[in-house]
Amino acid sequence: MIHKNKKALLFGFLSTVTASLLFVSDAKADSFYDTQHDDQTSKLEAYLKFTKIVSIIEEQYVDDLDASDIIDKALKGMLTNLDAHSSFMDAKESKELQVQTNGEFGGLGISVGMKDGALTVIAPIEGTPADKAGMKSKDIILKIDNQATIGMTIDKAVSLMRGKPKTPIKLTVIRKGESKPLIIDIIRDIIEIQSVYAKTIGDDILYLRITSFDQKVVSSMKKAIKEHSEAKGIILDLRNNPGGLLNQAIGTVDMFIDHGTIVSQKGKMADENLTYNATPNNSDTKTPMVILVNDGSASASEIVSGALQDHKRAIIVGRKTFGKGSVQVVMPVGNNESLRLTIARYYLPSGRTIQAIGVTPDIEVAYGEIKKAEEGISIKERDLQLHLENELEKVDGVLLKDEKEEDKTIITEEQIYQDAQLKSAVDILKALMINKK
How does the average pLDDT of the chain come out, rounded? Predict the structure, then answer.
């Protein structure tokens, strides 16, 4: 009797659990259906709202606009509100982008970005019209000629600054430390950039300045390092480098590490989740290295400095970088129009993001000049007569020897003292070189 009751109780318990599970399953199915239904309803209501507003504007707006014009404007506004780098480009703008990417054009040699809603100079590229005219990193551009940049997209700003070579342009800029806006006149020119400059400091330091990551950076760096094989330390100067090609940034890091992640990118689409790893081919993992960065170092520059910092392969010196760590693609959408869309963000080997954060140097040093105490005239007695005779001949306009031309392949002590960040980099590198010994 007790045995039968136990069976009955067990059966009753199992029946209750089964019924409960069925009820829960049905509830989940209903909930899932309701969620899907709500999503579809919400999406349909949003589309209907958009269509209704387009219709109202077309009928009642003070100027004549057809639906196509209104939708183009809506698309531009929509993409601009996503982030500073996404945009909808009509046929004209798409063609201009092609010219910029593939052909020669007149420009200023300046890289710009949106920071806190303002059109901000990331960096002027060395040797270009903008650089020669005195544009500086973090300048805020208020006007391009007579057009205010408030609310202007980057694409529109770039389009206005680009133009025929030898034509003038006037930029109104706000600069930190200046009491009023500055007017800077620039003459457009064909932008020809030397991306890598190699110089020596003393007998054993190789200084490599990369102005932008174009397609020749890795090959140029390898050539410079080979030509200066006696160097016992390397300074890599990425200050005011606005970035460039991802593969060149990866190739640069790969020259100095032989394993591990260089950079990864993560997006919504699975095929945009990529990881780029180092290879062991001919990597220099031993030569002491210091990297210089500042607030004009962006994108590819941040990948290089951040990756080598994470791998503890280099000491980073200078100021915090710009913070541009997003990935954009250009997609055709018909009628010669295109969409530039942010699809992913870059992440450094440690997993940290660059976007809006940047790379913080290991040792922060402000830009400036280091004053040296004057040593005065130091002349030994036996040299006194000859020295004074030489000085008299200089006064009379006669030099005993022709003055030597400045050697642009070396950095002098005087030049080092004019650049506090470089001076710090040299001192740190010398300490690393001594430690290696």
Answer: 85
Q: What is the mean pLDDT of residues 166-179?
A: 94
Q: What confidence tens digit (pLDDT) does each residue in 31-53 have?
A: 656 667 678 889 999 999 999 99
On the 0-12 / 13-18 / 19+ scale of CB atoms within 10 A, 287 is middle
DSSP structure class, residue 356: T
For residue 69, the model assigns a pLDDT of 92
Percent of the chain scored above 70 by pLDDT? 82
Residue 60 in 3-state DSSP? helix
Residue 387's pLDDT is 56
Handedness of CA 192, 356, 306, 320 (dihedral sign): positive
Is 310 annotated as catalytic?
Answer: yes
In order of their start, the domains of the chain are 87-190 (2.30.42.10), 196-364 (3.90.226.10)
52 given a catalytic annotation: no
Whether 324 sits among the annotated catalytic residues: the reply is yes
Structure tokens at 30: 């209903």
The secondary element (H helix, E strand) that includes residue 205 is: strand 205-210
Which amino acid would we find at residue 285? Answer: T
Strands annotated E in 230-301:
233-237, 261-267, 274-277, 289-293
The pLDDT confidence band at residue 156, using thresholds 50, 70 and 90, is confident
**Distance, CA of 264 to CA of 318 (rounded, Å):** 25
Selected catalytic residue, list 324, 326, 338, 419:
324
User: Does the pTM of the predicted model rise above 0.90?
Assistant: no
Q: Residues 267, 348: contact at Cβ < 8 Å?
A: no
Q: Tell me which of 220, 310, 326, 419 is the catalytic residue.
A: 310
218 Cβ contact partners less than 8 Å away, ≥ 6 residues apart: 248, 251, 252, 255
